[in-house]
Amino acid sequence: MRRKLLLGNWKMNKTVTEAKAFATEAKTLGREARANKIDMGICVPYVDLAPVKKILKNSLIVGAENCNELDHGAYTGEISIPMLKDLNISWCIIGHSERRMYYAETSEHCNKKILALLENKMTPVYCCGESLETYEEGKTKEFVEEQIRVGFKNVSAEDASKVVIAYEPIWSIGTGKNASKEIAEDVCSFIRGIIKELYGSKVSNKIRILYGGSVKPNNIKEYLTQDDIDGALVGGASLDVNSYKELLTNLL
Ligand code: PEP
Questions:
Q1: CA of 200 to the centre of ligand 1 (A)
Q2: From ligand 1's centre to the CA of 212, what distance in Å?
Q3: What is the Cα–Cα distance from 74 to 76, expressed in whole angstroms?
Q4: Which is nearest to 61 in space by CA: 122, 144, 15, 1?
C-alpha cells in the first residue's frame, strides 16, 4: 500500500518573515497527516529552508525546489546537495517545468541531479509533463515516456522506488485549467507501466506518482482517489496556510 503524499511548491514566493509565519501556523498539520497515513510537506525557496526547517523540524517534510548535481565549485548562484544535507533537508524537486522552460533544464541534466540525490540518500521529486501543443498533437505519452526513460537512466532497481514522480501537464500549471481526473490517471498509469517495464512490478507497485496542475482543496480528492495517483504537487494552493490545511482536511 503506497502512502499518499501531499507536497506544496512555493516557487519564488515568501520572504523569510512570511515563511516563518506560515510554518508556525502549519506546525501541527504533520501530526494530523501522519495519523491519517498521509505524508505532507512543502518545498520552499533556498533562503526559507533553514528557518522553516527550524520551526517544522520533522512535523512536515521540508524540501528544496532545485539543486546542483555537483558537491562544490565555481557555479555562482547554485546550491549543492551537501548544503541541503547540512540543513537536514532530504527532499528536492527536480525538473519542474518552470526550470525546464526558463532555465533550459533537460532530462539529461535532471538525470544527473537524480543520481546525485539518490547517492546522498535523498528523495528526488522528478517532474514531467507536456506542453499544450504536445497535448493537442496527441503526443503526451511519447513525450512523457522520453522524460521518464532519460530521467531514470542508470538509476538502479534498488533506488528507483525512492524517486517520487510528479506528472504535471504544463498547460494545467497555475492556469486553473486542470487535466481531468481521467486524463491524469491515464498518464500516471502509463508512467507506472514504464517503470514496470524498466524495473519490474515490485518497483512499479511501490513508486509514488503525483499529479500536479491547479490542484485545489475543492478538487484534490477526485485526483487522489484514482488508482495510480498517489498524491499531489501543489503550487498556488499551498501558499495560503488555510488553503494548504484544507488540502489535507478535504482529503480525509
Ligand atoms: C506546481 O507548481 O508544480 C503546480 C502544479 O502549480 P499549481 O498548483 O499552481 O498549478
A1: 30
A2: 6
A3: 6
A4: 122
How far is Cα 178 from Cα 219, in angstroms, rounded to an integer?
9
Asked whether the beta carbons of 57 and 76 are under 8 A apart, the reply is no
* Ligand 1: nearest atom to the Cα of 9: 2
Residue 239, CA distances (Å) to 10, 38, 75 in order? 6, 19, 30
**11 known member of a binding site:** yes
Ligand 1 close to Cβ of residue 9 (< 6 A):
yes
Mapping DSSP to helix (H, G, I), strand (E, B) and coil, where does residue 93 land? strand
- pLDDT tens-digit map of 178-207: 899 999 999 999 999 999 999 999 999 999
pLDDT by residue (tens digit) across 63-114? Answer: 999 999 999 999 999 999 999 999 999 999 999 999 999 999 999 999 999 9
Distances in whole angstroms, Cα of residue 83 to Cα of each of 14, 89, 125, 144, 197: 21, 9, 18, 31, 35
Query: Atom 1 in ligand 1: which residue has the minimum CA distance?
Result: 235
pLDDT digits (tens, 9 = 90+) for 106-157: 999 999 999 999 999 999 999 999 999 999 999 999 999 999 999 999 999 9
Instruction: State the cell numbers at 184.
Output: 491524469
Q: Does ligand 1 come within 6 angstroms of the Cβ of 236?
A: yes
Is the whole model's pTM more than 0.85, yes or no?
Answer: yes
Q: Which of 54, 27, 30 is nearest to 40 (CA)?
A: 30
Q: Tens digits of per-residue pLDDT, 37-73?
A: 999 999 999 999 999 999 999 999 999 999 999 999 9
- Asked about 96 being catalytic, the answer comes back as yes
With CA atoms as reference, report the closest residue to 69 among 31, 7, 39, 113.
113
Does 8 sit in the ligand 1 pocket, CB within 6 Å? Answer: no
